[in-house]
Design goal:
This protein has a single domain, classed as Metal-dependent hydrolases (TIM Barrel, Alpha-Beta Barrel). With about 230 residues, it is α/β, with parallel strands linked by helices. α1 (about 25-30) packs parallel to α2 (about 50-60). Strands 1, 2, 3, 4, 5, 8 and 11 form a seven-stranded mixed beta sheet that branches. Strands 6-7 form a two-stranded antiparallel ribbon. Strands 9-10 form a two-stranded parallel ribbon. It has seven helices and eleven strands. About 45% of the residues are buried.
């Protein structure tokens, strides 16, 4: 059975996302588009994942808890977890390693924390789009220590893709899955990797249609095993 997915979606907690990217709206739009599996992956925080989990359950979706992390090298990495609690621990780790800078909503956008009914719970004051002070290897180590899987994000897109930031996919980090922007050139042979094609949606209309699909995945443990290359 095909499981249509989008594993890179930003909620209104990410400053670059629209304010109407609430967990409720994301999950409703994903259901309308025929998806069965989504990941909400905000920059350096899991603060909206508890609401996203409740909204996904309401809409009959499988939610893969995640974050998008920017390493010291300014390479973007998706961190996927089996539980929201593990993702929240990763968010706490990110908070400890972000520079002590305040967000500037007038320049970068608001960072909204909301519940499953779209009630505003507050705003995250720190600058979530800054790079951590930890290098790629340490970040991957922390993700795996929490039972998660690191996946390089949009490797072939812009300076924050791993190819743009580092010039290569470091073999010593043991990545088995890459997120690839399908409409851009890919300057490496990625045939040895499992590949994801997700939207990196910052607006509701950008959430993926029912196109990319996974086969034989019926649970989060099975999905994480697949992402690990098992």
């Amino acid at each position: 059975m095909a499981l249509y997915y989008d594993l890179h979606i930003h909620s209104c907690l990410s400053p670059c996302a629209d304010d109407d990217m609430t967990p409720a709206n994301i999950c409703a739009m994903a259901r309308l588009k025929g998806l069965g599996l989504i990941a909400v992956t905000d920059h350096q925080s899991a603060g909206n994942l508890p609401a996203a989990e409740r909204c996904a359950r309401r809409e009959g979706l499988m939610l893969l808890p995640g974050l998008e992390v920017c390493t010291r090298e300014e390479a973007h990495l998706l961190a996927y977890f089996e539980s929201v609690d593990s993702a929240l621990e990763m968010g706490a780790y990110c908070a400890r390693h972000l520079p002590p800078m305040k967000n500037r909503p007038e320049l970068f956008g608001r960072q909204l924390l909301v519940d499953e009914r779209e009630n505003l719970l507050g705003e995250e004051p720190g600058m979530l789009i800054a790079a951590l002070d930890e290098p790629l290897g340490k970040v991957c180590e922390q993700i795996r220590a929490l039972g998660g899987v690191p996946v390089p994000a949009h490797v072939n897109r812009g300076s924050n893709g791993m190819l743009g930031a580092l010039g290569l996919i470091p073999p010593e980090e043991g990545f088995r899955t890459l997120e690839i922007a399908p409409h851009l050139p890919l300057p490496i042979d990625a045939s040895g990797y499992r590949q994801l094609h997700s939207s990196d949606a910052h607006r509701l209309g950008d959430i993926a249609e029912a196109g990319p699909a996974l086969q034989g995945i019926d649970s989060l443990p099975a999905l994480l095993c697949w992402l690990r290359g098992n």
